[in-house]
Amino acid sequence: MNIVKLSALLSGVVLLAGCATSGIEATGKTEGDPEYAKHLVIHNEPLAKAITITDMKSRFKGDLLEVNVVLSNLSSSDKSIQYRFAWYDGDNFEVEQGGRSWIPVVLHGKSSTTMRAVAPNPSVKTYKVNVREL
């Protein structure tokens, strides 16, 4: 009977460990258009309070989605971050998941940077920018 209880306990621990994430995923806040928030995912709650999208533009260049996102540091201290775009088709399924590398950038205090990207294929209809601390 003790073996059954021990097995159940270990199974529960393994299940909980498998559900753990490397950080808190917080939707970013934005300045200006509240629609910007749905395009920003920050993988760290304190960072989510310091980083914001201040401008965002997108267009179709031929049949590929092209985007410009301006990310701003609201704090006075430098933030070493990494970002990458996640691309989604018309059914909101991620396209070419895991095929993109994280891009490092230093956001100096009270400064902004423009991130530009082009979708990997014509099925892409929308995107998100994932940001995490370096």
Protein architecture, described:
The protein is an alpha+beta fold. It has one domain: Sandwich (Immunoglobulin-like), CATH 2.60.40.3230. Helix content is 16%, strand content 47%. The strands form two sheets. Strands 1, 3, 6, 7, 8 and 10 form a six-stranded mixed β-sheet that branches. It has a four-stranded mixed β-sheet with strand order 2-4-5-9, with no helix packed on it. The radius of gyration is 19 Å and the shape is globular. The termini are far apart. About 17% of the residues have low confidence.
Compile the SSE list and pairings.
Blueprint: H1 2-19, E1 26-27, E2 29-30, E3 40-42, H2 45-48, E4 51-61, E5 64-73, E6 79-89, E7 94-95, E8 103-107, E9 112-118, E10 124-133
Parallel strand pairs: 2-4, 3-10
Antiparallel strand pairs: 1-3, 4-5, 5-9, 6-7, 6-8, 6-10
Helix content, binned percent: 10-25%
CATH fold description: Immunoglobulin-like
> Which architecture would the CATH scheme give at its second level?
Sandwich
Quick one: biggest sheet? 6 strands, mixed
Number of helices, counting only DSSP H or I runs of 4 residues or more: 2
**How many structural units, i.e. domains?**
1
What Rg do the Cα atoms give? 19 Å
Structural class: alpha+beta
User: What is the strand tally?
Assistant: 10
For the termini, the CA-CA separation is 48 Å
Task: Just give the CATH class.
Answer: Mainly Beta
The ordered string of helix (H) and strand (E) elements is HEEEHEEEEEEE
